[in-house]
Every structure is written in C-alpha cells, then in structure tokens.
Amino acid sequence: MKKVYYWSPFITPVATVRAVINSANTLKAFSKSEYQPSIINVAGEWNVFKKELEDKEINLIELTSSNIINNKKYKGFLKSRLIYIYIFFLAFFPLIRLLKSRPPDFFIIHLISPLPMIINYFFKINTKMILRISGFPKLNLIRKLFWKITLSKIHLLTCPTKATKKDIELNNLVQNKKIKTLYDPIISPKNIIYSLKNSKIKLEDRNYFLAVGRLTRQKNFTFLIDAFKTFNGKNKNKLIIVGEGEQKDTLLKIIRSNKIENLVEVHDYTENIYHYYKHAKCFILSSLWEDPGFVLVEACYMGLPIISSDCKNGPEEILEYGKNGILFENNKKTSFIKKIKLFENLSKDEIRKLIVNAKKKSKEFTPLKHYKKLIILLKEID
Questions:
Q1: What pLDDT is recorded for position 352?
Q2: Host domain of residue 18
Q3: CA-to-CA distance for 282 and 183, rounded, in angstroms?
Q4: pLDDT beyond 70 at 299
Q5: Can you tell me the distance from the alpha carbon of 317 to that of 333, in angstroms, rounded to the nearest whole number?
Q6: What is the pTM (predicted TM-score) of this model?
Q7: Quick one: which of 13, 287, 304, 324 has the fewest CB in 10 Å?
Q8: Cα separation, 110 vs 131, whole angstroms
C-alpha cells in the first residue's frame, strides 16, 4: 500500500482545507486500498475535522502536542503571520523526524509550503514531493531565487487552473514537464443532497442575489455593497452575503451607515451553504483574485446564473470567457452595473443556456475526475 501524506496547516478553514479532505478521500474511496492517505496535524488545526476523517478512514498524524490553533480564530494580518512563523519553527524538527523515520511514498504540500520545501532541499528525504500552488506568488528577486532553488527538487507541481500553470511556465521557475493542471475535487453530489435534505434554513425562493466567501479584502465585498446599492436604486432586489472574516464589522458598518439594511444582509457562514444556492436568483463573485474559486464552481453546479469579475485566475476559465456566465471588469463599478442590468434583461432561454453550460463545466471538478487525474500523475513520478 502506497502512503500519501497531505501537508496543509491552516489558521482559518479556507476552501483549500475542504479540497485536501476531498482529495484524500478520493484516494481512500476509489483506489481499492492501493493508497493510504494521511493528513498532518501540526498545531491542532485539524482537530475540528477528526470525526469526519475517522469516518472516512483518513489517518491524522499528530506532529506535535500543540493545540494553539484548535478551532481558535486569529483575526488580523499581524496575528496570522505570527502564527505562520510559529508553525514553521514548531514543526521544523518534528517534520524532519517524521520524514526520516516514516517516509511516505508521496508528500503533497498545500498550505504554508516553504517548510517542507526547505527540508526537502537541505535533507535527504526518500519521498516524492508534490507542491500544489494556488494563485501565482508575487515575485521579487529574492523570492524568485528561493522558489527556483527549492522547486529544483520538487517532483511535481500541480495548479488548480490552466492560467496559473501558464504563469509559472512563463516565469521559468521549474521545468515545464513538472507542471500539471489538476482541478480540485470541489463538487460532491452526495454531500450536496445530504445537506439540502437536512437544512433548517428558511429563505425566500429566488428573491435575492447571493455572494459567498471569507469576509476579507480579496473577496471585495466593500465594492460589491457599494455597486449593488447604486444598481438597486428603488428596486426591491436583495443581496445576501454569507461568510466570516476580519472585515465583518466593517461591512456591517457600511450597511448601517448607508441605511441599506433592507437591501443587503450579512449571514454567518454555515457548512450547509447549498440551501442558499438553491433559493438564490443569481450568484455574484466580486473577488479581486481567485484560483480557482470554489464557491463559483459550487454555484455553477447548483444551477445558478453567474455574474463574476474577470479576475485572475479562475473565473474566466470556469465561465469560459462568457459562455457559462456574465463577466464584468474586475473592480469596475460601471462595468458591474452594466452587466447586472444585462442579466436582468436576459430571456429565460438565455439564462437557461448559461446555467446548462456552467453546470457542465462544474462536473470537471468532481472527486472521481480529480482521482483519475491524480492517479495518472502519481504513477508518472513513481
């Protein structure tokens, strides 16, 4: 049996965390015991998922005895960066010991990637290292040098979009033959059916626009609220934003100061998000950047018409440059208002065509599709 370790320490449960669980689960569910996936728990960050991982028979490796993260919320840029530094030094020697004493056949790196890459470069580790990179990093001379050096010993680099793959190839960071596109396993039909069946959320059917995501600068909800207010005028359209994050108080303050509580609502994030998709009129993605945009794929699968910014790197690819949804210029208010008015004037047949195309594209992000591609890649480097 081949051992596969997933490295993905996190402070807040971003979408990548769900992708890690889903990816590990595909190996366990589809490989007929050929692969045994394990997730490394550095500082208690994976404790909240212990029951789920146990049910799926995914091992959890306790790297340290620290529980500093353990479902705690660390708000603000400075605090989060200090925790990242703490994790780096906390895990340094335990991770070396683990990789020396119990080396896996494959080591898949998701979040907080420098530590395994540094260890892999300076120490002789008998494992195949795979880096999953989401969103092309900003590169100065020192960063580019670091990436080129550490990536020289990486066996495979996977990207969640073709656009990110192209960016990495153009910057000549690693041999092009090592760079592959691997879509994340975002859509799980069984989980969606279960969530909808057990939902207790009450919503007015098809009476609101929906936006979902962490309440951070990246998601650009301050722009969305302002642009939606301008578009809405005397209309009775409602916008519901679902999420948690450091900008929550700021967004609520903007809503109150503009006296638009009847137009814009901010709801706490829930694992049972699919009920919101099911009853929405349209999904809006206002992000400044994505890669690929998990909520966008979910909305496509749930049969929602999409209005999205044309930000890098996911929306254009998922919406196929307007074939599967409506794109507006990133962070441009006039463009957003123009495109949302366009949506309001579409015929039922035009909307149906967008929905059918988008749902077809979303099926490229299923667990089985991910598993089939992942197995091909693992066998190529084994």
A1: 96
A2: 2-184+366-381
A3: 24
A4: yes
A5: 22
A6: 0.89
A7: 13
A8: 7
